[in-house]
Amino acid sequence: MNTKPSSRASGHIVILTGSGGSAESGIPTFRGAGGLWGGHDVMKVATPRAFCAQPQLVQRFYNERRQILLTKEPNAAHHAIARLQKEHSGRVTLITQNIDDLHERGGSPEVWHIHGELLKSRCTHCGMIHACREDLGPASVCPSCHGTGRLRPHVVWFGETPLFLEELDARTRDATLFAAIGTSGLVYPAANFVHIARSRGARCIEFNLESSDGVFDEFIAGPAAQTVTAWVDSFLGHTR
Ligand code: NAD
Question: Which residues, at least 6 apart from 233, have a Cβ–Cβ distance to it below 8 Å?
Answer without folding.
Answer: 80
